[in-house]
Backbone:
């Protein structure tokens, strides 16, 4: 699945409680947002005023008086772009000598070393840790500093990457991918999902290992988290701020969406509350879904839609990472989505072929997509995207006052990056709460040299 940045055009949205976005027209590189809400959109300048929160209260900053439900909601204007850096082309520890080529997934912040763990080349799923050099704000890749390798490439699953079937059986799912990593209680917590699990083989997902990647025999897993298909939980993770943990019933959110065989996962951002300290203790680690959309409840948009542009959710939408911002009630999902008309078929850069039938087939169409020529989902052009949810809504789901598919983002917006991710989306999000810095990996944004095509890491500070 591939994508491209939408010419630097900014789009943000105030979300109403009904159908959020009716259509997006992309005309001559200009994005026009249509909404059926009665407030927030300024038709004169394209700006969006402060949204109302999902529970009807103002989204303006409020003082925190011991009640986390009164904390502020983060808006697009609260994220200050700091700059970015390149990842090294070093391959130490990788017997395949690929390093971070085409990698950059499942990133997480390491407070002990002020570094970032990251998955390298997707074929091999090795993990390494890199430093965070001084950030540079430039559209010139050559001006960015390059990180160094802090810990060498390692198989953090110790050979158990595909052992996600019942009782740890091997699953053949056309590859198994590390969906998320998280430093938690001085351990490295990770999870794995079957890439193309049409047969529902995968039952297990999470594991633990040492934060010291060279520690021998540190792997423990795989473990079952929750009772839903692992396609709901085996991806990004984020710590829940301390003041929210008792309310939501746990210390960490985990989720996954936008993967092949969509019926096994959520039709939009999803998250469940769980406690990583129960991995290896409980036979099934409890997980409480607090947001997610089933096939019968495609609230944000229909996966099969092929008639209107719907960036809030379409068949091209894919996951990246999640951040629960400290000192707020905002849960930010960060990923990729399409701004064009969704289409399932074979991508083509020849616009005149769009909608015609591929020779040798009876009903398979061409889809106009100069960023992705493969057969699959398309909605060209594409953008990195943020879905912002109010934790009060997640709490209402946890308390049984709402269904997980009833809640919607209070705001959504495009991420603006100096160098676009060549249409390949976000590999993950890492969060440093001590500095309120969010790091995201823009996939394949750095052509490097030869066969590299590595990520660029960009940073935003929560004001």
Residues:
């Amino acid at each position: 699945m591939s994508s491209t940045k939408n010419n630097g055009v900014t789009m943000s949205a105030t979300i109403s409680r009904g159908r959020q976005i009716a259509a997006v027209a992309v005309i001559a590189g200009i994005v026009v947002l249509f909404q059926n809400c009665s407030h927030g959109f300024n038709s004169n300048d394209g700006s969006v005023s402060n949204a109302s929160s999902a529970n009807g209260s103002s989204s303006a900053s409020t003082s925190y008086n011991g009640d986390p439900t009164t904390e502020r909601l983060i808006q697009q204007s609260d994220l200050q772009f700091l700059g970015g850096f390149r990842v090294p082309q070093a391959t130490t520890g990788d017997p395949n000598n690929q390093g971070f080529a085409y990698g950059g997934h499942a990133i997480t912040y390491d407070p002990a070393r002020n570094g970032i763990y990251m998955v390298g080349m997707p074929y091999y799923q090795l993990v390494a840790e890199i430093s965070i050099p001084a950030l540079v704000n430039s559209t010139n890749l050559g001006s960015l500093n390059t990180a160094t390798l802090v810990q060498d490439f390692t198989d953090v699953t110790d050979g158990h990457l595909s052992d996600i079937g019942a009782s740890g059986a091997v699953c053949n799912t056309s590859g198994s991918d590390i969906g998320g990593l998280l430093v938690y209680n001085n351990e490295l917590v990770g999870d794995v999902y079957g890439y193309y699990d049409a047969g529902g083989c995968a039952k297990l997902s999470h594991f633990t290992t040492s934060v010291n990647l060279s520690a021998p025999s540190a792997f423990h897993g795989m473990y079952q988290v929750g009772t839903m298909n692992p396609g709901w939980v085996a991806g990004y993770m984020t710590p829940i701020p301390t003041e929210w943990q008792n309310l939501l019933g746990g210390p960490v959110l985990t989720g996954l969406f936008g993967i092949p065989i969509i019926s096994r996962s959520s039709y939009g951002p999803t998250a469940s509350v769980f406690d990583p300290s129960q991995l290896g203790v409980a036979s099934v680690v409890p997980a409480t879904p607090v947001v997610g959309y089933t096939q019968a409840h495609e609230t944000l948009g229909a996966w099969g839609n092929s008639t209107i542009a719907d960036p809030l959710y379409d068949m091209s939408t894919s996951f990246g990472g999640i951040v629960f911002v400290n000192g707020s009630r905002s849960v930010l999902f960060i990923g990729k989505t399409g701004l064009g008309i969704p289409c399932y078929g074979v991508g083509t850069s020849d616009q005149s072929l769009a909608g015609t039938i591929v020779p040798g087939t009876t009903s398979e169409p061409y889809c106009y997509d100069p960023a992705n020529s493969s057969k699959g989902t398309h909605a060209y052009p594409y953008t990195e995207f943020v879905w912002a949810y109010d934790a009060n809504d997640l709490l209402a789901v946890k308390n049984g006052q709402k269904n997980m598919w009833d809640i919607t983002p209070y705001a959504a917006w495009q991420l603006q990056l100096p160098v676009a991710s060549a249409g390949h989306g976000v590999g993950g999000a890492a969060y440093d709460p001590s500095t309120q810095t969010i790091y995201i990996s823009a996939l394949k944004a750095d052509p490097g040299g030869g066969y590299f095509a590595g990520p660029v890491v960009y940073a935003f500070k929560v004001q």
About this structure: The chain has one domain: 63-339+390-416+424-462.
